[in-house]
């Protein structure tokens, strides 16, 4: 019986090897090819190493500082810390390997005219050699340029830039066949790199100075024009600036003009005049008050008169005490008082008139000053409105002056900004190489070994992918969709002798096939079956004979029939006659029992193919073949037909239709999968019953499988592969 996946019930599932193990098995299958490739690559590597010209490598070590030390504190054009470290050093590595640097080295050492340089690299200078037609003629400009390019290319090809990880140190190595040239180039390379760095810095400064000179000339003209516009506008508007100041942003601010100064001073005088007028008015008001003491306090004469009147009045009062008012002394005293009163009144009028005159003068002065202040206010207002446009001109002057001053300062700075120590310093100058750096035999042997391994691996992989044969039992069911009945190991001895021994490898293998066949039908081992293959010599005939022997020992009588009438070989291999056989019966001879031959083996008989007919397909297509099988099945327990291979013939499909099932024989590591698939499809199209596939000539150890379970994969010996199973061609 068969399981759902198409494998015969009772067959063991084959383990799928891991990918690495598959590669290992493939390598074992092509061990001789891989060994030959390794040997050839090793020999070639050794020969090439011995033929190589010794090369000498000189190495200089430099340090590239992240920042350079400036002699001045003036900042240069480039900020040294403007880029990350990684970007900075990657830029330096590229500059060290730049073509412009190689051209500087070539010019410094004049390598284009140095024949030893070209000889050290095994190169002929351009324009020289056997094909040169110029001979000893002077070198032309074009040839010299060609040699320069050639020398630069050689420099770039043989120089190596090796940064030391985690440091600012860099090794510059140069390799050639001459130690002197290697040392000279390695030393010159670092020297020219340092000089190139300085030249690049000064070149950038020179370009900046030229640019700034052009800009300064333009700004100078703009500043002069803006100052001229400012002065002209101030003259037209009558603006006179007495004092100015600078703001924190450098803007000019006017603190005082002539108009504002005049207004300020005149306003101060007006305030004083107003105060004087107020004081005069207060005095006048006090003087006009009756009995005011203000006049007495401010006029000494009036105070004296009032003192005399008080004395005269006191004296007059004393006289009235003793005399009558008309008394002459009393009368004289009264007249004296009256005269003093008249004098006091006259003095008071004189003082009031003086205060009035003073008040009038102060009022007139205040009025005149106020009129003048009002006039200056109008002029100041007009000037303030004119200051708007004036300030616009002033800001333009300030802006142009600031730009001009800053560029002028920068122009002066960059002249000394590039003056500084170089950030590139030589740590180790290239010493003279004493020993060749290459070739190294050990390294080249290892490289040749690695190359051989790679080539061997490629060859094995290519051969494995080009090989469409079945190498492992597990591939039968996956690639052909046919259940596997068994795998027959290859043996080096005579297969017929091995089959006679029930304990031999082949007997055990075919016993397993017999066991699997017993599960292929509901009544056990098929009564009639045929064995076919894709092409000849796949072990089909040997397998048919082997199954006959196993069934004869375990399942009763068996007849082995050779129906390959195109190429009958079983009779000769078994030592029997092929004078009469199947072709005779199919041609009309009914005495089929006379065709049976005794093989000398227990319960096993044989019927030969007989004489080769003109057309085997015509004989097999009739009803006589089915009648012949029926007659044999009535007498024997099992009938095994050894049919022709599929090829492009119709014999096998015709034979498959008269038996219960077909056993398909496949030779391991030989039969192409596509050919087997096509042949099996033909059998299925002819409605043949495929019992399963039999893998013959299987080398278990070479494929990485152990051999156990009954007969065990691995008991066979890995001898030379025979064209048959056990030495019998099929």
Overall 3D geometry?
elongated
Going across the major beta sheet, what is the strand order? Answer: 7-14-13-8-12-9-11-10
What is the CATH superfamily of the domain at 474-703? P-loop containing nucleotide triphosphate hydrolases
> How many β-strands, per DSSP?
14
Query: From the 3D coordinates, which CATH architecture of the domain at 474-703 would you assign?
Result: 3-Layer(aba) Sandwich
Total count of helical runs of at least 4 residues: 23
Helix content: 55-70%
Any idea of the CATH topology of the domain at 474-703?
Rossmann fold
Largest sheet: 8 strands, mixed
Stretches where pLDDT is under 50 for at least 5 consecutive residues are 1-15, 69-74, 133-137, 704-730
CATH top level label of the domain at 474-703: Alpha Beta
Structure description:
- This protein is α/β, with parallel strands linked by helices.
- Among the domains are: 58 residues, no CATH class; 165 residues; 230 residues, Rossmann fold, CATH 3.40.50.
- The protein has 23 helices and 14 strands.
- The strands form 3 sheets. Strands 7-14-13-8-12-9-11-10 form an 8-stranded mixed sheet, sandwiched between helices.
- The chain is elongated and about 225 Å long.
- The N terminus and C terminus are likely disordered.
